[in-house]
Amino acid sequence: MAALTRRAKGVPLSLLIAKYFAYAFVLICAAWVVSFTALSASMNAGAVYPANWGAAHAGETAKALQGEGPLDPQSIPTAYRYALFAADGELLAADMDGAMLEHARELAADGEAAAETEVTGSAGATYASFGLSDGTFCVLGSDYMPQFASPSLRDSLPNPQNIMLAAGALGSLAAVALVARRAGRSISRKMAPLTDAAERVSRQDLDFSVEPGGVREVNEVLSAMDGMRSSLKESLEARWDAERRQRDQVAALAHDFKTPLTVMRANADYIAEEASSLASGGLGDISGAAADIAAAAERLDSYVGLLIGVSSG
Fold it and tell me: Is 45 left (phi over 0), alpha (psi -120 to 50) or beta?
C-alpha cells in the first residue's frame, strides 16, 4: 500500500493520450512528406511533368509541331491533349474530350486560317492553337496538373497528383491504425494490475499487494481497491476468527456434556438395579442417586443455554 501511495500520482491519462496523438500527427506528416517527396523525385527524374509544364512550354511545343509537317500524335508530349481539325472545321482526330474538346472546337472555328500560334487560358487549362502546313488546324490543351511522361502510364494510371493524394491518405490511415494499436496495448498493460486485483478479490484471495499501473487515474482506482482489499481482509479474518472461537466453544461444551451424562447414566442404571430391593431398606441410596440425576440435569440445562447463546453469535 505504501509503494502504491508513493507512486499514486503516476502519468496523467490526458498526457498519455496526448503523447499518442503526437505520435499519430508525426506519422501522418511523415506519410505526406514521403508522398510529396516521391512525386518531386519523379519530376526531377523526368518521369513526371510538373503541373505548369504544359503552360510554360505551349508556344515552343506548337512551333516544333508546326515544323514537322503533318501532325504525328506520337510526337505530342503527354502533358497535352490534342484535337486536329480539317480546314472546314471537321474534327479529324483527338484524344481530348468533354469541356476541353468543346473549347478546342471554338478555337478552331475562330482561327482556321491562323498561321501564328495562339496561347490562351480557360477554366484552369492552357490552349495552344495553330495551323499546320497541310491546311489542318491543331489545338493542344493542358490542365494545370502533373502528368506522366510515358503515354502508357498516362493512359493506364490515375494522375500522379491523385496517386500522391491517395498514398498520403492511405499512409495517414496506416499511421492512425498503428498508433491506435500501440496505444491500446500500452493502456491494456497499464490496466493489467487493476484487472488482476479485481480477479483476486472476486476469488477472496486477499493476501497480495496491489502494484501501481503508471497512470494517475488508474493508480487512484488501484489505491481505493487496495483499501477495500485491506478492509475486506480484516473483516473476513475477524469473521473467520469468530467462527473458530465459536466452534471451539461448541466443542468444549460438547465435551462438558459427557460428565453429567455419565453421572445420569450411572445413577439411572443404579436406580434400575436397586428398584427391586426397595423392601430391603435401600431407599437412602436410591434417593442419593436421584439427587445426582437432578443435579446433572440442571447442569445439562445450563449447557443447553450456553449452546443457544453460542449459536446466536
Answer: alpha
CB-based burial of residue 213 (10 Å sphere; 0-12 exposed, 13-18 middle, 19+ buried)?
Answer: buried
Give the span between the Cα atoms of 14 and 19, in whole angstroms: 9
Under a CB-based contact definition with an 8 Å cutoff, are residues 260 and 298 in contact? no
Give me 42's grid cell.
519523379
Q: Would you call 66 exposed, middle or buried from its count of C-beta atoms within 10 A (0-12, 13-18, 19+)?
A: middle
Instruction: Report pLDDT digits (tens) over 1-55.
Output: 444 444 456 677 778 888 889 999 999 999 999 999 999 999 999 999 999 999 9
DSSP 230-286: HHHHHHHHHHHHHHHHHHHHHHHHHHHHHHHHHHHHHHHHHHHHHGGGGGGT-HHHH
Residues 6+ apart with CB under 8 A from 96: 81, 82, 83, 104, 141
Mean pLDDT of 214-224: 72
Which amino acid does the sequence have at 59?
Answer: G
Check if the beta carbon of residue 260 is closer than 8 Å to that of residue 299. yes
Helix (H) or strand (E) holding 131: strand 125-131
Q: Which residue has the higher pLDDT, 28 or 289?
A: 28
Angle at 237 between CA 236 and CA 238, to 5 degrees: 90
**Cell of residue 97, nine digits:** 474530350
| Of 103 and 278, more confident | 103
Angle at 184 between CA 180 and CA 190, to 5 degrees: 145
Q: Mean pLDDT lowest for which of 9-13, 136-140, 179-183? A: 9-13
Residues in the chain: 313
pLDDT band for position 310 (cuts 50, 70, 90):
low
Which residue in this structure is represented by grid cell 453429567? Answer: 260
| Amino acid at residue number 10 | G
E strand residue ranges, the chain: 48-49, 81-85, 91-94, 118-122, 125-131, 137-143, 147-148
